[in-house]
């Protein structure tokens, strides 16, 4: 380009002296200080005003170079005439040089211009030329108008205004784009046509070409709108850019969507177009748009050299970027590693997924292909290794979530929240993410970061793909979390959405762990904060609305404990605001329903019942409104939910009024008030209205009406005969209606079908509603029966809506279905139908007793009051005649006293092992005062082990006898109770035997064994008093124990098939011993007691054999066979008397421990001159010793030592063991060891004498094997090989 333009040389300044002192600033006041410049004026306005005050000189002929500058003076811009003269001079000079060029030189110069200014410079210069001509012509017209007045434009002028340019004749330039022929080319554009020339100006050189173009770009301001005020100073040029068409812009599908604008990106060049880029596409000059997707170099492609240099110097390559922007840096400079391509080995994956999961900003997992090929504009590339992969790993996100840049930290926290909602993460990763969220949500952090941190905590606990459980809370600081939430609620700096997330997270925390409710309520002013923030009074403006979750949080806090409910009752008045106005919208009805439910929860503790009188007008008005809407056919879900809550609340208050002494404080509500408010009549009307649907309103109305009838039987005249008659007259036709009976019978049939399915441990929602409907209807029918012993003659009892047989069948199925865990709803049905069957008396006492004795094992916690009533009925029905009918021997004097009634104090006391009492499904007057919680959590069930009761519940009185010094039952016994310890044991065994006879599902063997062990342990730590004998030596007690254990012996293993050996003695003892006392300690005391007082009692000794099975730890065998070896000769239990269903459990796997083998060998050689081991113990010892000697037995036992008969070590061990037997044991024992045989653990155990008579071929094989390893020992045992065992 040196041939086109010349240098621009400055002219000499017109000033006479460059060192003249600066003149006084204009505009200063008399005080000497500068005038105040108001900031309301922009810099452009101030510059324009200054230009108007000091107009530029227009007579400067040329620009002279300035030798030096002083002070703050700035060079003044050249006059406009000089600029035009200079532009013309440069234009003429360029025209002359272009005319003198050859076509090759022109093409070279055009390529040089395109290289520096881009391929779109032609259109840009053309538009600049057109704009300049328009401005010049307009200026001429304005000057002419000011001089001669307005005149019209000629046709030529209009033609010029329309930018129809005359092409200047010149030699054509080569086409470098597919252009429209009508458009001017680069060769026809007059670049310097308006720059005035100077005769003294030297030629313009190549280095000043860009300056010339810049001058053209910064041309004079447009004069298209002279009347429009301009903030730019005069003579200010504007920077112009390309004007692409809509078709020139390509929008990538992967670009993130925005509600404000769509991201426009330049399109990809058409790879099929090899001639050149398309003319309708705007391209940037130096960036190669070969692909906007991340390009991963393939292994076969040439990579950079180790030094970092590359021979490829094309546009956009790392070497080109280095040469253009960092020319002085070496090619292998480490600081420029970021511009180089990463080798393909870093991003090559052997499988379809990266080594670590990578996620996009939406929390979605990226595949290996997407991670390596997604474009960089999506924001998924960062400086983490490998930096060329799109997406973030969890480690990257955890690292960036602690960034010091708030926006970056907030974004990463949001991504983590989305990942939690999408992916199931491990516990360790969950802990790290939760710690990040807790740190980010601290008070005082950046608002966006804190908001994202709260969202992360909310996602982790509420919306996580891995549902949070009670065990999850053990790994997080819940106390600190609750305190943090309280601080945020107090400050209210966070947005409303974050506050709602805090509320929902608090609700989730207390739902998972009721123990946290006390922590929530321990924070001062937290309850008023929740009320103020989330439960504002209803208003008609656009203020914040009340949140249902706040009331649900109150529900969970109140259910957790009575103490928490008492604290909440202090703020319960705030919820009345949702009952004052009749709710007419679904949201208002939902708030009112949750308020009523909150009062119902308090009412089940007997709390806050006085509000029934205080707000009676609103409560009654709400009930009447519900009745009217239901009568008009309105059955929206929110309305039915509100009606159900209203009926449940009335049920609780009616129960409170039955016995006002049970409320806290007493007499908060009275039965006379219930009668005056006429709640019974309203409930009855609601029941009739809902009879056509049999939905939740029917169920709630049946429950409330039955509570009202039961209360009338206690507090109204003639045992409530008038109320029962009213209900009977209103409902007898409805209950006997065919549609209702068909619907209820359909519930029974569907439940019987679904309960037969195995493999599930909970009820579905439909099954729960069916049980609720059946229980409530049957409870109403039961309440209409007059009390037992009343003298009423009026028919008031409603007919049974389902058949008696189907009711029995469903109850039996619930009890027998082992796959169904006892639930409150199944227990409610069992309770109602059991009471109803007892009241109707359509079956014999033995049939009812057979069913009733299965119920303690089939109901959950909370139904202790019902089970206590059941024990009373069992004690009444279990008489001497019934025991005789079952062939159960009983002592004659047992029935002279109270019989089974002697056990009632112990049985009832066992139902309440803790002060924590769970509320029953149906509230009762007695439960109001003693209920301590309404939440049955897994932790509560682990602490209270009363219900469901084990099948050995008839032996519960033995626990109190063993702990007579600490049991509270002995302090509560009535003065008339005078039974002895032996009487209690006799009655317990009789009750247990009756249960075993009547109940289909027998107690496990381990529970029966442990129950008898407790009878023997009654003598533990008792004084040696000759005047009293041991309880277990009582003939009735001993015979009952033998009768109880006889079905569990190996000889009778086929008589009882229902029990199993899955429950070990250690498991059976946990209910009594607790978690702090191991069964091994109990067994040690039991063994020591046998050594001290048993005198060889056979049943006592038989119970000792249970824990020495191979299924128990080796310590038990060491304790009996090693530490108490001297008592082994007294244990003469035969195999048929062993309390086991599988004798192979004592034989296999074969004992290989050296210490244990020594114990068995010592037991066989015990008292060699006297009688040694007898019975089953001898079989056990011979088996384990023989299996460690003979190869065929080791092979049958599956022992690893027997896999290689030639193993020298095992042969030596067997030889030494056999030598010890032959030298120390009696001859009979040696013969037993030599000729012992078993067929393996898969077949039945061979007993004596078959097990001591191996076939001759087996004996000969053993003799040959022994001769091969020790001929002397074989010769010494030759007689034992020949003579069979006697």
Automatic annotation (TrEMBL):
Q: Where is this region: Disordered?
A: 1-115, 130-320
Q: Where is the composition biased (Polar residues)?
A: 14-32, 54-74, 82-91
What region holds the RPAP1 C-terminal domain? 358-422
Under the heading InterPro entries, the entry gives: RPAP1/Rba50, RPAP1_C, TPR_RPAP1/MINIYO-like
Annotated ranges, domain RPAP1/MINIYO-like TPR repeats: 978-1186
| UniProt feature, compositional bias: Basic and acidic residues | 93-115, 165-182, 240-251
Q: Where is the composition biased (Low complexity)?
A: 37-53, 299-316
Tell me what this protein is called.
Answer: RNA polymerase II-associated protein 1 C-terminal domain-containing protein
Natural source organism? Sistotremastrum suecicum HHB10207 ss-3
């Amino acid at each position: 380009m040196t041939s086109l333009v010349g240098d621009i040389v400055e002219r000499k300044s017109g000033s006479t002296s460059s060192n003249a002192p600066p003149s006084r600033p204009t505009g200063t006041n008399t005080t000497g200080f500068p005038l105040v410049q108001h900031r309301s004026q922009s810099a452009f306005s101030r510059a324009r005003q200054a230009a108007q005050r000091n107009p530029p000189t227009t007579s400067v002929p040329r620009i002279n170079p300035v030798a030096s500058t002083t002070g703050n003076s700035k060079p003044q811009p050249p006059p406009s005439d000089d600029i035009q003269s200079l532009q013309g001079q440069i234009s003429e000079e360029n025209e002359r040089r272009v005319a003198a060029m050859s076509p090759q030189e022109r093409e070279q110069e055009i390529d040089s211009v395109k290289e520096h200014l881009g391929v779109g410079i032609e259109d840009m210069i053309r538009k600049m030329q057109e704009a300049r001509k328009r401005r010049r012509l307009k200026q001429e017209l304005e000057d002419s108008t000011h001089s001669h007045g307005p005149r019209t434009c000629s046709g030529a002028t209009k033609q010029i205004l329309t930018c129809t340019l005359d092409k200047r004749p010149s030699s054509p330039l080569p086409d470098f784009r597919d252009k429209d022929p009508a458009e001017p080319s680069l060769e026809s554009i007059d670049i310097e046509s308006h720059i005035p020339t100077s005769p003294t100006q030297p030629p313009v050189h190549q280095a000043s070409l860009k300056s010339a173009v810049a001058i053209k770009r910064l041309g004079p301001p447009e004069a298209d709108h002279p009347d429009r005020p301009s903030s730019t100073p005069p003579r200010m040029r504007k920077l112009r850019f390309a004007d692409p068409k809509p078709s020139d812009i390509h929008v990538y599908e992967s670009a993130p969507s925005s509600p404000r604008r769509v991201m426009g990106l330049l399109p990809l060049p058409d790879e099929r177009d090899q001639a050149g880029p398309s003319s309708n596409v705007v391209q940037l000059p130096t960036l190669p748009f070969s692909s906007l997707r991340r390009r991963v170099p393939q292994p076969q492609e040439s990579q950079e050299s180790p030094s970092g240099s590359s021979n490829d110097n094309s546009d956009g390559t790392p070497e080109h970027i280095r040469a253009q922007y960092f020319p002085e840096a070496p090619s292998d400079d480490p600081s420029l590693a970021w511009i180089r391509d990463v080798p393909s080995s870093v991003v090559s994956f052997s499988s379809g997924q990266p080594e670590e999961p990578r996620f996009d900003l939406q929390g979605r997992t990226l595949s290996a292909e997407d991670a390596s090929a997604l474009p960089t504009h999506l924001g998924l590339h960062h400086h983490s290794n490998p930096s060329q992969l799109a997406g973030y790993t969890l480690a990257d996100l955890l690292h960036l979530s602690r960034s010091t840049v708030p926006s970056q930290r907030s974004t990463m926290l949001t991504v983590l929240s989305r990942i939690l909602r999408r992916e199931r993460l491990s516990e360790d990763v969950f802990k790290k993410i939760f710690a990040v969220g807790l740190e980010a949500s601290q008070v005082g952090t950046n608002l966006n970061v804190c908001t994202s941190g709260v969202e992360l905590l909310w996602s982790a606990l509420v919306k996580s793909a891995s549902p949070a459980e009670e065990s999850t809370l053990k790994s997080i600081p819940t106390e600190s979390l609750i305190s943090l939430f309280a601080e945020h609620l107090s400050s209210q700096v966070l947005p409303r959405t974050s506050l709602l997330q805090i509320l929902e997270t608090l609700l989730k925390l207390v739902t998972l762990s009721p123990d946290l409710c006390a922590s929530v309520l321990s924070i001062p002013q937290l309850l008023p904060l929740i009320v103020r923030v989330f439960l504002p009074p209803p208003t008609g403006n656009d203020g914040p609305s009340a949140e249902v979750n706040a009331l649900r949080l109150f529900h969970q806090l109140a259910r957790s404990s009575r103490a928490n409910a008492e604290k909440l009752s202090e703020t319960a008045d705030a919820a009345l605001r949702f009952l004052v106005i009749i709710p007419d919208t679904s949201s208002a009805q939902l708030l009112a329903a949750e308020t009523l439910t909150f009062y119902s929860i308090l009412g089940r503790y007997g709390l806050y019942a006085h509000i029934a009188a205080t707000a009676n007008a609103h409560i009654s008005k709400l009930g009447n409104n519900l009745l009217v809407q239901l009568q008009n056919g309105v059955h929206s879900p929110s309305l039915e939910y509100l009606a159900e809550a209203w009926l449940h609340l009335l049920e609780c208050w009616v129960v409170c009024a039955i016995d006002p002494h049970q409320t806290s404080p007493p007499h908060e509500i009275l039965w006379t008030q219930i009668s005056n408010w006429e709640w019974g009549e309203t409930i009855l009307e609601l029941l009739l209205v809902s009879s056509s649907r049999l939905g939740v309103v029917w169920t709630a109305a049946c429950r409330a009406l039955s509570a009202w009838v039961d209360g009338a039987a206690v507090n109204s005249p003639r045992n409530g005969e008038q109320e029962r008659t009213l209900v009977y007259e209103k409902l007898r036709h409805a209950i006997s209606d065919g549609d209702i009976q068909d619907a209820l019978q359909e519930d029974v049939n569907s439940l019987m079908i679904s309960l037969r399915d195995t493999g599930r441990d909970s009820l579905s929602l439909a099954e729960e509603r069916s049980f609720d409907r059946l229980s409530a209807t049957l409870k109403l029918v039961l309440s209409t029966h007059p009390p037992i012993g009343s003298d009423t003659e009026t028919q008031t009892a409603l007919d049974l809506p389902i058949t008696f047989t189907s009711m029995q069948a469903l109850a039996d199925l619930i009890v027998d279905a082992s796959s169904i865990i006892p639930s409150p709803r199944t227990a409610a049905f069992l309770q109602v139908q059991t009471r109803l069957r007892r009241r109707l008396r359509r079956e014999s006492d033995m049939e009812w007793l057979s069913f009733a004795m299965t119920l303690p094992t089939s109901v959950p916690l909370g139904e202790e009051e019902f089970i206590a009533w059941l024990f009373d009925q069992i004690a009444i029905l279990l008489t001497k005649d019934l025991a005789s009918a079952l062939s159960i021997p009983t002592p004659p004097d047992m029935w002279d006293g109270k019989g089974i009634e002697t056990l009632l104090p112990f049985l009832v006391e066992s139902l309440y092992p803790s002060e924590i009492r769970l509320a029953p499904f149906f509230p009762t007057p007695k439960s109001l005062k003693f209920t301590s919680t309404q939440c049955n959590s897994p932790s509560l069930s682990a602490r209270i082990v009363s219900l469901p009761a084990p099948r050995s519940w008839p032996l519960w009185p033995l626990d109190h006898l063993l702990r007579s010094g600490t049991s509270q039952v002995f302090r509560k016994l009535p003065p008339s109770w005078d039974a002895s310890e032996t009487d209690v044991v006799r009655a317990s065994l009789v009750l247990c035997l009756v249960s075993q006879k009547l109940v289909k599902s027998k107690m496990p063997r381990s529970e029966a064994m442990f129950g008898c062990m407790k009878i023997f342990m009654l003598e533990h730590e008792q004084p040696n008093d000759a005047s009293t004998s041991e309880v277990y030596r009582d003939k009735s007690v001993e015979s009952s124990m033998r009768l109880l254990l006889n079905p569990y012996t190996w000889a009778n293993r086929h008589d009882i098939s229902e029990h199993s050996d899955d429950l070990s003695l250690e498991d059976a003892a946990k209910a009594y011993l607790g978690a702090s006392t191991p069964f091994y300690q109990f067994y040690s005391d039991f063994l020591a007691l046998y050594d001290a007082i048993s005198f060889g009692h056979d049943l006592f000794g038989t119970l000792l054999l249970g824990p020495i099975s191979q299924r128990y730890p080796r310590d038990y065998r060491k304790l009996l066979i090693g530490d108490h070896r001297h008592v082994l000769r007294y244990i003469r239990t035969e195999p048929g008397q062993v309390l086991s269903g599988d004798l192979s459990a004592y034989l296999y796997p074969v004992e290989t421990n050296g210490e244990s083998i020594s114990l068995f060998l010592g037991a066989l050689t015990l008292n060699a001159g006297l009688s040694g081991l007898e019975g089953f113990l001898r079989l056990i010892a011979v088996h384990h010793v023989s299996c460690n000697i003979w190869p065929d037995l080791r092979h049958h036992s599956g022992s690893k030592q027997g896999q290689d008969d030639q193993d020298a070590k095992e042969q030596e061990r067997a030889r030494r063991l056999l030598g010890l037997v032959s030298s120390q044991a009696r001859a009979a024992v040696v013969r037993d060891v030599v000729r012992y045989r078993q067929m393996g653990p898969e077949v039945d155990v061979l007993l004596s004498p078959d097990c001591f008579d191996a076939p001759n071929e087996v004996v000969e094989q053993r003799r040959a094997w022994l001769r091969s390893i020790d001929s002397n020992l074989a010769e010494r045992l030759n007689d034992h090989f020949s003579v069979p065992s006697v």
